[in-house]
Amino acid sequence: MSLSRSFPLLVVISAVVFLACGGGGSSESPQPVATKPEITAQPTPKSATVGHEATFSISANGTPPLSYQWRKGGTNIPGADEASYTTPATTLDDNGSLFSVVVSNAAGDTVSNTAKLTVNPVAVGNTYYLDANNGSDTDGDGSEAKPYQTVAKLWPKLAAGDVVVMASGNYPKIVAGRTWDAHGDVGWNATPVDVFPDWVTFRAGSGQEPHVAAIDIGTWNETPAHAMPWTMKGNGDAYLRFEGLFVDDGVSIIGSRHVEVRDCKIQRLGDLVGQDMPYQKTGVVVTNGRYITIEGCEITHVALGAQIMTTDFVFRNNEIHHNTHDGMQIYGGDNLLIEGNKIHDLDDGLADPLPGEPAIPWNMHVDGIHIYINNYAEKMATDLNGLTFRGNTLYHLEAMGIMVNGVTPPDTNYRDWLFENNVFGPTGGIMLHLGGHVVGFVFRHNTIVSTTETSWTSIYRGNPCTDYGVAYWGGTNEQIYNNLFVDGRVKPDQREERFAYVAHNLYVTAPPAGNGPLADGEAVLAALPYASGDWTAQLLPGSQAIDAGTRLGANQLPLPNQLNVDINGNPRDNRPDIGAYEIQGRNPPAE
Predict the structure, then answer these.
(1) H helix or E strand, kind and range, residue 151
(2) In this structure, which topology does domain 38-120 adopt according to CATH?
């Protein structure tokens, strides 16, 4: 069901340039002539509600590199130098402001059209009711007593601030944020459109279980006139929120900004293995958008839990379980918060093929989290900057806990990653496989649980569960401290000099002699600091991990960005405990 059905006329003009070949004797190839920037998609007028941002975007061609300078009222905006510009939180004083951008290269400058910003007061919305079984699009009026039957009937009436309360029943796919296009549900060639200037919420009624076929918001738009580069950071404002729904065949958010999916159960229809590749059965897809939140959802009976490549993204307190491919795949992005999630029981039922064995299309290397850059087109991210992985629990995984591939091509980047307060169980492969060079990697207050549980049963088969390994390929400015490790091989083999700071880690098994001596505050555990077989790994009173952590760096000065709470949100004291948990009620002296 498409909820926005304008039909744009697209005119594609092709130009053929003939180059004459002279008869000169020079063997040097002629240098290409730089072409001045040409704006292919002008910035469009935007509306925002007081307190919200507005984002203006542009597409341009020309000899690279292109540079951008956004202007407000003809005055340059400091730091606004990308293909899109997001304003600060708006006020009524911003109403009527005009924005434009200057695109420059070696051949000259091109100035865009101006785009007007309209700022509206905070909306006070209406409440409407839908009932797929007992409502009526003919006799209903959207009230609780006379609900409509379909979203399509209600949609034209919706405005910023409205809430839609949904009764039990089956509803068609909700599609928004793009025009209709000839590719139907895929919509990759459709034109992006803004949906609402402030939040509209679709919510399950009390005690109700509404089933929505799917949620499909936005578009990449792959036509030349509106093609979306990664630097655009979203191409339309949706302001759509979904709460408490059953989503039967996946959530897709591509290109849109301001979408929230909360407390929903998300799955995919059909078989999870077979001739369909797992990527066609992803629970949640979020790419090229901005300000997206997925929170409190259960993602199960899917192949791949979530595919993420976006900006300013929150994935919090979700449970991904009993699926047949990776829990999450992250292809790049900026400012991603992955917090408080449980990812477990992932297996495709097949052992990885040995060299020379025939490949099976749905046989995958099933990891909890798989991170890599897939930069094969302009719309794909070139880096992953600002990743926070906090308070998550991972266990019962066929392969790696977290798998990070090296960065290709070499001009892409991993920067500023923070892993803290996580609990990891043993996996079928290496628990943390950091195969890429990260500039600024902090791994602190994590617990890797040593357990007597050496196998587990997935939806297909039994699996071994015995690998506690942590592998580092080296980076820049790495800080690894206050962790409870199991396998002493975590120590980098003769590479201690690569780490800016390593200290106050505890190990169940001693590092091999080739790894060098233990660092300051490090030790081999005399006994487990938690009950054997206790999956939560809560610290036992009197354990070796209590008051054994540090707040000081190698220079004995306080470490930056102190961690002041544990995995449960409890405060950490002056001398923090090692691992994800903090024993409460203590007041030890500071170091």
Answers:
(1) helix 151-154
(2) Immunoglobulin-like (2.60.40)
